[in-house]
Amino acid sequence: YAFQYAKEAVKATGADIKLYYNDFNCFQSPKTAYIVKLIEYLNADPANPLLDCMGMEGYVLTYWPEAKEVKSAMNKFADCGVPVGINELTVRLNQKESANHKEVTEKDLEAHAKKYKDIFNAYCDFAKERPGMLTNVSIWGLLDRPDLEAEFEKPENERHYDYNIYGTHSGLFTADFEAKQAFFNVIDVLKEKGGN
User: Fold this and answer.
1) H helices within 14-88, ranges in order?
2) Does pTM surpass 0.90?
3) From CA 27, how far away is CA 72, in angstroms rounded?
């Protein structure tokens, strides 16, 4: 009913507003399959589809998931006839999510940069293979947050929200606005693939 009433309200105003269903971890099984069923349900009436676009929150970890898993989910949603938007992309990295679960090392930063490269390759390939089906890639938080590192010492339930959600070394830039390898990897992919 939320989508039905929202669609009716949009039609009544005559505005060009797209209705998204936005969710996190959309690439996980069986969640992907449940979302596909929801899209099919909402758009069962071809004369009055209620959902215009699928929004995939982009919170991923440096070491999980594989970019191909994200692209696979994107294809499944596009197969339902709805474009896909990547919202709030953050490749999370903090002490807890590092390889040794104690500290962020140079190896972690290299893996973080590689994940950005892999994920943008997946997005660009999807956009090329499915023209018009990728609406946006929105990056959530461009800067590292070393000010949150002390949160690691606190009990899990007392940590600052941003520590777990955003991380300490997740940005494309350092806290001093210096471009990281992750940034250059994204730019290289966009140049190579034509920004598609």
Assistant:
1) 31-42, 67-79
2) yes
3) 7
